[in-house]
């Protein structure tokens, strides 16, 4: 089984991802969504956690082989980034969501030299807004951001547009399209749920998908 399908099935099996096309979730932004993703749950399952870590290592070696430093996003990307850096025997740092209010007031933690080739580790990419701030902060500090890796992406058009706008690439271990296929194969959803699930991804702000 491919890494995309393995990760998708693992997320579904431990309920890190829940699909409810007929009883949608409400995100903090107010968007109605048929999917809710909490990849932090994977940390509690050693075998599935190892699949993600090894997947990240292989993805970075393939796509960003020049990586010198691994950087996690606060807070969800920190444990993944630290485990990946340890396995790859590379330096690790992380970027706070805002400057620390005491001490040196750091936003970037860890030793990241100017010119260092960095890969950012995130757990989830929805619109990409939060990781954009991390990328820009690292660039401002003089680092060269090779790209971003994440466990999962919803494949929303907004995320591709955002990454294009800041000229940064991102790669993920699995994604929404693979996940709904795996969910159908394993009876987590029914065939007639697919139309709603596919319609939502095209434009999450358009709630007409709920009437399909």
UniProtKB/TrEMBL annotation:
Amino acids binding orotate: 126
Q: Which UniProt keywords apply?
A: Glycosyltransferase, Magnesium, Pyrimidine biosynthesis, Transferase
- Cofactor(s) recorded in Swiss-Prot or TrEMBL: Mg(2+)
Q: Does Glycosyltransferase show up as a keyword for this record?
A: yes
Q: Phosphoribosyltransferase domain: which residues?
A: 67-152
GO terms under biological process: 'de novo' UMP biosynthetic process; pyrimidine nucleobase biosynthetic process
Q: What EC number(s) are associated with this protein in UniProt?
A: 2.4.2.10
Indicate yes or no for the key word Magnesium.
Answer: yes
The domain of life is Bacteria
Q: Which GO terms describe its molecular function?
A: magnesium ion binding; orotate phosphoribosyltransferase activity
| Catalytic activity, as annotated | orotidine 5'-phosphate + diphosphate = orotate + 5-phospho-alpha-D-ribose 1-diphosphate
Pathway given in the UniProt record: Pyrimidine metabolism; UMP biosynthesis via de novo pathway; UMP from orotate: step 1/2
Give the binding site residues for 5-phospho-alpha-D-ribose 1-diphosphate: 96, 100, 102, 122-130
**Subunit comment for this entry?**
Homodimer.
Role according to the record: Catalyzes the transfer of a ribosyl phosphate group from 5-phosphoribose 1-diphosphate to orotate, leading to the formation of orotidine monophosphate (OMP).
The record's similarity note reads:
Belongs to the purine/pyrimidine phosphoribosyltransferase family. PyrE subfamily.
Q: What PANTHER family does this protein's entry cite? A: OROTATE PHOSPHORIBOSYLTRANSFERASE, URIDINE 5'-MONOPHOSPHATE SYNTHASE
Name the record gives this protein: Orotate phosphoribosyltransferase
In its UniProt entry, the species of origin is given as Longicatena caecimuris
Q: Which gene encodes it?
A: pyrE
């Amino acid at each position: 089984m491919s890494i995309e399908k393995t990760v998708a099935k693992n997320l579904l099996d431990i309920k890190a991802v829940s699909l409810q096309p007929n009883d949608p979730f409400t995100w903090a932004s107010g968007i109605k969504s048929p999917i809710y993703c909490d990849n932090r749950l994977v940390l509690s399952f050693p075998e599935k956690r190892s699949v993600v870590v090894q997947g990240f290592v292989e993805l970075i070696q393939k796509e960003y082989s020049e990586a010198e430093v691994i950087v996690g996003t606060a807070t969800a990307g920190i444990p993944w980034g630290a485990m990946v850096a340890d396995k790859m025997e590379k330096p690790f740092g992380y970027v706070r969501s805002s400057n620390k209010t005491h001490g040196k007031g750091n936003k970037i933690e860890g030793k990241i030299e100017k010119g260092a080739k960095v890969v950012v580790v995130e757990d989830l990419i929805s619109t990409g807004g939060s990781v954009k701030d991390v990328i820009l902060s690292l660039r401002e500090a003089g680092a060269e951001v090779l790209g971003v890796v994440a466990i999962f992406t919803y494949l929303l058009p907004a995320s591709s547009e955002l990454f294009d706008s800041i000229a940064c690439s991102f790669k993920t271990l699995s994604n929404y399209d693979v996940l709904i296929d795996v969910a159908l194969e394993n009876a987590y959803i029914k065939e007639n749920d697919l139309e709603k699930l596919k319609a939502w991804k095209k434009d999450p702000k358009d709630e007409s998908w709920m009437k399909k």
